[in-house]
C-alpha cells in the first residue's frame, strides 16, 4: 500500500508535520540524523528540500501491495543507465542521499545502481526499506527489484500471452543466468528488465538464506501471475488466491527474510498464515478503495461472487440509482477484509526489531484508517477516497509500538461500528468481526523491552516521514537535472 497516497504536496505535509510535532524548530534540532546502518545521514538537506519542493508530485495508486511494492512510478527508468554511467549522472547522489556516505562508499557499483533503481521505482517504499537495519536492507532492496521486474513483465500488454506465460513461469531461473535480460518491454520501468544482469548479480551476492527465499517467492508469484493472465476473479476464494499471489507471497517472503536476518525470531518466518494475512489486508484495501479508477480503466478486481448479488455488471454499481446496492456490496467486501485484522495484530505483536516493526505497522494502520473511510461511503463510487493529511501524519508518528497500534485499530473499528446500518445485509458478519477485533485490541500488551531502539519512536517516525517526502522532491529535481 502506498503510504504517501493520502498525503499530497510535500510542503503542505511538512507544515502539518511541524504542527503535530509542536513546531519543527523546537524539536528537530535534536534529530540531525537518519538511521542507516549504524551510521548517520544528515536530515538538514531533507528539511531544506521540503521547503522548496515543486508541486505535482502525486502518483496514481498501485494495483497491488508492491504498493508500495510493484507500483507504477511516475517516471520510468529510461534515463537510468548501466552501472558504469549511472554513477556519473548529476543526480546520482541525490538519488541515494538517504544512505549515509560511508555506506555508499562501501557498496559495489552494481549495488549502488540497485538503490538508484529502487528510488526511481518506489518513492515512499524506498525510504522505509533503507531504514531497515543491517544486511536486511540490501536483501529487501533486491527482493523488491526482482519482484518489480517480474511485475513489469506481467503489466506489459505488448508481450503476447504465448510468450509472457513461459516468462512468468520461468522468471526465477533468470536469477542465476548472468547475462539474461529483456529488451522488448515498453513499460515505463523497463530498465529493471534491460539491466536485469545488475540486479541478478547482486542477488547472487546475497547470503544463501536470502537467495533461497527470494527465488522461491519469485517462482510461486510468477506461476500465480501466469494463472490469472486470462482468468477473472470470480469467487471469494479466488479473490483470496489472487491477493495471495500478488500480496500474500510478498508478506511471506518478507517475514522469512526478517527471520533469516536474525533480527526477528524464526517463528515470524515460519507462520505463513499470519504473514499471508498481512499482505491480503493491504491488497484488499487497495482493491476496495480503487473501484472507480479500476472500472474506468477496464480492470475488474472485485470478486464476481460479491458484486453479482447486487448488479448485473460491476460497473453498474457506479450508477446513482444503484447506490443502495453498491453500498451493500462495498460493506460486504470491507467486512471480508476486516477478518484479516486479528492476524495482523498477532503478527505485529511478535516483532522485536524497531525498524522491522515500523516497516510493517505503518502500512497496516493506514489500511484500517482507509477502510474506515471507505465503509458505507458513496464516494467510493463517485471519486477518490483519501484519509486526511493530518490523519496520515499522526498515524506515521504514532504507529511505533504495539500498544499504540492496538489503540489505533480499536479506534477505527469503533468508527466502522458506528456506521453499520440496521438494514445492511452483512450487518451480523460485520458486527461479529468488529467484536473480535475489539477483543484482540484489548489483550494485555507484550513485553517490548527487548526491541532495539536506535532513536525514540517519535524521532524515528519523523525521519522516515521526512525521508519519504523528500524523495518526491529529489526524484523531480534529479530528472530535471538530467534533462538539462
Short characterization:
With 484 residues, this protein is mainly alpha-helical. Helix content is 61%, strand content 1%.
Tags for this entry?
D-glucose transmembrane transporter activity, 1% strand, mainly alpha, globular, 25 helices, transferase, NAD, EC 2.5.1.21, Squalene/phytoene_synthase_CS
In words, what does this structure look like?
- There is one protein chain.
- The chain is mostly helical.
- The chain has a domain at 108-207.
- It is built from 25 helices and 2 strands.
- It has helices spanning 10-20, 24-27, 44-51, 83-86, 92-95, 101-106, 109-121, 123-130, 136-155, 161-170, 191-194, 196-205, 208-227, 236-260, 266-270, 272-289, 291-296, 304-307, 323-338, 341-350, 354-374, 389-398, 402-419, 427-441, 457-483, and strands spanning 33-35, 40-42.
- Strands 1-2 form a two-stranded antiparallel sheet.
- Strand 1 (33-35) and strand 2 form a beta hairpin.
- Helix 14 packs across helix 16 (272-289).
- The longest helix is centred in the last third of the chain and has 27 residues, at 457-483.
- Mean pLDDT is 77; it is low at 1-15, 17-64, 67-98 and 445-455.
Secondary-structure blueprint:
Elements: H1 10-20, H2 24-27, E1 33-35, E2 40-42, H3 44-51, H4 83-86, H5 92-95, H6 101-106, H7 109-121, H8 123-130, H9 136-155, H10 161-170, H11 191-194, H12 196-205, H13 208-227, H14 236-260, H15 266-270, H16 272-289, H17 291-296, H18 304-307, H19 323-338, H20 341-350, H21 354-374, H22 389-398, H23 402-419, H24 427-441, H25 457-483
Antiparallel strand pairs: 1-2
Helix pairs in contact: 1-22, 1-25, 3-25, 7-8, 7-9, 7-12, 8-25, 9-12, 9-13, 10-13, 13-14, 14-16, 16-19, 16-20, 16-21, 19-24, 20-23, 20-24, 21-23, 22-25, 23-24
Organism: Gambusia affinis (Western mosquitofish)
EC number: 2.5.1.21
GO molecular function, one term: metal ion binding
